[in-house]
TrEMBL record, chain A:
Protein name, as recorded: Uncharacterized protein
From TrEMBL, chain B:
Ranges that cross the membrane: 12-31, 96-116, 157-181, 201-222, 242-268
Domain of life assignment: Bacteria
Any Pfam family the entry gives: Ni_hydr_CYTB
Record key words, sorted: Cell membrane, Membrane, Transmembrane, Transmembrane helix
GO terms classed as biological process: respiratory electron transport chain
Keyword Hydrolase (UniProt): no
Coiled coil residues, start to end: none
The keyword Cytoplasm is annotated on this UniProt entry: no
Residues covered by the Oxidoreductase molybdopterin-binding domain: 333-480
Subcellular localization, as worded in the UniProt entry: Cell membrane
Protein name, UniProt field: Molybdopterin-dependent oxidoreductase
Lineage: Bacteria, Bacillati, Actinomycetota, Actinomycetes, Micrococcales
GO molecular function, one term: electron transfer activity
Length: 81, 506
């Protein structure tokens, strides 16, 4: 069975500006290689939390605890779903 | 006024000071985008000889993208800082153009006026004399003023090295990183050790240049400064004006540093406006020089199958279900049902839908090429596919109104500039580039179907351009009249989101 790349979608509060996106991504990428996950991107809506998309192999489950901790280090950013 | 320090000499020196700072700071921005250096024919994780990041890289291909390695520099350090490699590259280009122009003016006038004799040694006596000065400095002493006529032997050697060896070396290694140069003259890039060799040598030259600047500026203030500052500011030898000259010089240095930093913050205040200006300015240089380079990789013998890289980075990962159910379904059926649409967006509405078998049935092109990303990584592969011009010919003659070819992907952009929901990745290329021999829709790499993470089953190759033009997971290829009508109107996803320039030749 091939181990394809898939996407996990999370929601993050506190991220609105491009500068906040950059700080959050920098914090995530400091940890992602060790967590075995790949590229991430944010989509920021006018209202509500930002959507965080993380690509990874189907065999790897993103560690939401580590992701939440990395986001918290970068600013007042919290996983909300 | 002393004829040894004419106005043109002092002016070009000051302009050089401003530009070298812009060059270094924009260069650091580029380096921060991929803070690792290699001596290899690829950029495999764990094989770098130097890195400026603690981030670990997994050895596995196809999960970790090179953009994940990008570090964000402070605008006080980088130009412009904050992870803007696109704009950093354009500032580097603008600075290079002006720096070379300033250097040419300086060197021409240096020889025209005969002042070259003060800098370039004409006798072997310079060696023992330079050694004498070096020994004095080692003992924390200062050579007497008689040593300086107007420069001492060590200065002459240093200046000659920087002006006539180090500066040209930086230009030559910088040019070697251009895909337009590489695809036209692959032997030249191989001479420097390939793309990674050129990049590492360019970095070493930058370190030497920084070392020279620190030493040079320090000695101006530590060794007979009452003479130096008067020479540099007034072109005079009357040390009675030393205090006045010192105030002017320190004020000028502060002003230049303020300009360096202001350029960063002004750029970040309106990145799109800055991109518009820098793209226009740097295009002048590309038009004069790089646009004339046409790739001829199928005729070259410098790179062979022995040069194929073991490791190939990626930027962007394969489409997933929320991006393209169609691509996922075709992938799971071994590409049965996969289609590429070729069409005309300029008015006729003509289009054809092709399968992978249809592509394979067309005349084949195959060559060895080095792929380089604007971040700095590279990898060499054998690419096989169909020339874009042969593919588009299936629609008939080029439509009269067509000025560009637009290629889009089943995959989405990694990021939009304003972080809005992602849109399909696309790139536009001009007609000259689209018709180049080495612009192909590739379906094989190294004699096998293209890996999923590198664009399977078919991806664009535009060998005269950097990787951001090489659309992966191709969905459609269309004649268009103007790229301004698509996306954010800058000519491609990376132009729109990362503010790269439309012309990806350097």
């Amino acid at each position: 069975m091939p181990d394809h790349v898939t996407t996990t979608r999370l929601q993050v509060s506190g991220i609105r500006t491009d500068d906040e996106v950059r700080r959050a991504l920098q914090a995530l990428y400091d940890r992602f290689a060790e967590l075995g996950v790949g590229a991430a991107t944010f989509e920021v809506a006018d209202a509500g939390p930002a959507r965080l998309y993380i690509k990874h192999r189907e065999s790897v489950a993103p560690d939401t605890g580590e992701i939440a901790a990395a986001l918290a280090r970068a600013g007042d950013f919290r996983l909300v779903g | 006024m002393n004829p040894d320090f004419p106005f043109w000499l002092r002016a070009t020196h000051l302009i050089n000071f401003l530009l070298i700072g812009m060059l270094l700071r924009s260069g650091w921005e580029i380096l921060a985008s991929l803070p690792r250096l290699w001596w290899r024919k690829d950029s495999a994780p764990g094989t770098e000889w130097l890195r400026f990041t603690r981030r670990k890289l997994p050895k596995e291909e196809g999960v970790y993208t090179s953009l994940m390695d990008e570090k964000s520099l402070s605008p006080l350090i980088g130009l412009p800082g904050r992870g803007n490699v696109g704009l950093g590259r354009h500032w580097h280009g603008l600075s290079v153009m002006l720096w070379v122009l300033n250097g040419v003016v300086y060197v021409v006038l240096l020889f025209a006026t005969g002042l070259w004799r003060r800098i370039i040694p004409t006798s072997w006596d310079v060696i023992p004399e330079a050694w004498d000065s070096f020994v004095i400095y080692l003992g924390f002493g200062v050579p007497s003023i008689e040593h300086f006529q107007p420069y001492d032997a060590l200065q002459m050697l240093g200046y000659s090295f920087v002006i006539f060896i180090l500066a040209p070396f930086m230009m030559l290694t910088g040019l070697a990183m251009s895909p337009a140069i590489r695809s036209r003259y692959p032997w030249y890039v191989k001479f420097w050790g390939g793309h990674q060799g050129a990049r590492s040598l360019h970095f070493i030259a930058m370190v030497l240049m920084c070392g020279f600047i620190v030493m040079h500026v320090s000695l101006v203030f530590l060794v007979h400064r009452e003479h130096n500052v008067v020479h540099m500011v007034f072109g005079d030898v009357d040390t009675a004006r030393y205090a006045q000259a010192l105030v002017i010089m320190i004020g000028t240095i502060v002003a230049v540093v303020v300009v360096w930093i202001a350029l960063s913050y002004l750029t970040l205040a309106d990145r799109v406006r800055t991109h518009h200006f820098l793209a226009w300015f740097t295009e002048l240089g590309r038009k004069v020089f790089l646009n004339r380079m046409r790739p001829r990789l199928d005729a070259q013998k410098s790179y062979t199958d022995a040069d194929i890289s073991e490791f190939h980075w990626t930027n962007g990962l394969p489409p997933t279900a929320e991006e393209s159910e169609e691509w996922i379904a075709a992938r799971d059926r071994d590409w049965e049902g996969y289609t590429v649409t070729i069409g005309d967006d300029t008015g006729s509405g003509a289009s054809k839908t092709l399968t992978l078998d249809d592509l394979r049935a067309l005349p084949q092109a195959s060559y060895i090429a080095t792929h380089s990303c604007m971040q700095g990584w590279s990898a060499t592969s054998r690419w096989t596919g169909v020339r874009l011009r042969d593919l588009l010919a299936l629609l008939g003659p080029k439509p009269e109104a067509a000025r560009y070819v637009l290629v889009d992907s089943y995959g989405l952009a990694q990021k939009m500039i304003d972080n809005r929901p992602r849109e399909p990745f696309y790139a536009a290329i001009d007609l000259d580039t689209a018709f180049e021999d080495d612009t192909i829709l590739a379906y094989e790499r190294n004699g096998a179907p293209i890996d999923l993470y590198l664009g399977a089953p078919a991806r664009l190759r535009v060998e005269s351009n950097h990787g951001y033009k090489h659309v992966k997971w191709v969905r459609s290829i269309r004649w268009i009249a103007d790229y301004a009508d698509y996306g954010d109107g800058r000519g491609g996803t990376r132009e729109d989101s990362a503010l790269q320039v439309f012309n990806g030749r350097i």
